[in-house]
């Protein structure tokens, strides 16, 4: 699965780890993240991420 990086703060979303602190289970691909999901570090939306 592809990693995605936040263009604002550099946070890397790694599908293997997910984002359990925000309700995203490990193994969740970036494309399957809920529409309301935001970067856990800076709070921007998915549209500010690009494939790493």
- How are the strands of the biggest sheet laid out side by side? 2-1-3
Cα-based radius of gyration, to the nearest Å: 10 Å
Class by SSE composition: mainly beta
The counted number of beta strands is: 3
Helix % is under 10%
Strand content: 15-25%
Order of helices and strands: EEE
CA(first)-CA(last) distance: 11 Å
Write down the overall geometry.
Answer: globular
Keywords: Electron transport, Iron, Metal-binding, Transport
Pfam families: Rubredoxin
Protein name: Rubredoxin
GO molecular function: electron transfer activity; iron ion binding
Task: Summarize the SSE layout with pairings.
Blueprint: E1 4-6, E2 12-13, E3 49-51
Antiparallel strand pairs: 1-2, 1-3
Describe this structure in words.
With 52 residues, this protein is an all-beta fold. The protein contains no helices and 3 strands. It has strands at 4-6, 12-13, 49-51. The chain has a 3-stranded antiparallel β-sheet with strand order 2-1-3, with no helix packed on it. Strand 1 and strand 2 (12-13) form a beta hairpin. The protein is globular. The mean pLDDT is 97.
Keywords:
52 residues; mainly beta; 3-stranded antiparallel sheet; 3 strands; globular
Write a brief structural summary:
With 52 residues, the chain is an all-beta fold. 0% of the residues lie in helices and 15% in strands. It is globular and about 25 Å long.
């Amino acid at each position: 699965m592809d990693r995605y990086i936040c263009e604002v703060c550099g946070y890397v979303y790694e599908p293997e780890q997910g984002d359990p602190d925000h309700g995203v289970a490990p193994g969740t691909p970036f494309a399957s993240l809920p529409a309301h999901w935001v970067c856990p570090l800076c709070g921007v939306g998915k549209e500010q991420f690009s494939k790493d």
